[in-house]
């Protein structure tokens, strides 16, 4: 049996992944360079075996050396596409899983699934979507990296990001207070003037039975939100304490309104009869409208919570 030297084994490991046309040239180049390096060490007094081992160690992993000869990257995504890949992936991970989970949760609610089933289905779909988004986006950029394709994405100064809104400026405080005032005004307008023409006395949208205590709770939450906006503006920044209070207020509003909706105490029955059931709308359709209303009563406070924490993180970074 023929004994192969370390040099022969190293060269064989290097050229095996190269194209046949390149193997002979690389083999000849390596044989010459390794031989010269070994002889130089031997002339300096090293043993030939030790000199050969030292030279091959300095050359490193033959796979990496072969990738250099073949001009093939040993990473999934290199610096050319990395930032584009990362920015796109972050954007999709913010949008796609939330939309998918919201859609599944709404569908499960319309199918009258239990709360546990809704949460389980939404989480399962969310995890699956996250995995798929990461895999397919990475695969696309992997192919671009290997083929050397040009995405056409070029950076210029117009792409510089605008300063992120802190949510603690005067305009933000005024906008928040005006929005809250409109909310309170809408409640009183609904009670005393009405939003829908009936040909007679106005029929309020909200259940008259909410007056005075139910509406008082709503106004108290509005006042608390207004005070929070003023406090944030006074500090010129969002803090963890402000984000926690904002979260508690949003959760309180969502829980309060959902309990009233489920009990049938939120919307005026007379209004429902005048607009829907009195015009032939069936109970199944009313159930769908109730689910959609409940979905909105969860989504909007949830977005308020997320927005508050995002602004808090930005303030802490600043």
Provide structural commentary.
By secondary structure, the chain is an all-alpha fold. It is built from eleven helices and no strands. It folds into three domains: 6-70, no CATH class; 79-153; 170-317, no CATH class. The chain is 73% helix and 0% strand. Helix 1 packs antiparallel against helix 2, helix 1 packs across helix 4 (62-70) and helix 5 (79-110) packs antiparallel against helix 6. The radius of gyration is 34 Å and the shape is elongated.
Please describe the topology of this protein.
Blueprint: H1 6-15, H2 20-43, H3 48-59, H4 62-70, H5 79-110, H6 115-147, H7 170-192, H8 213-235, H9 240-263, H10 269-275, H11 283-317
Helix pairs in contact: 1-2, 1-4, 2-3, 5-6, 7-8, 8-9, 9-11
In short:
This protein has eleven helices and no strands.
Order of helices and strands: HHHHHHHHHHH
Number of domains: 3
The Cα radius of gyration reads 34 Å
Shape, principal axes of CA atoms: elongated
Share of helical residues: over 70%
- Beta percentage is under 5%
Estimated structural class: mainly alpha
| Mean of residue pLDDT values | 84
Low-pLDDT segments, ≥5 res: none
Largest pleated sheet: none
**Number of alpha- plus pi-helical segments:** 11
What's the N-to-C terminus distance? 71 Å
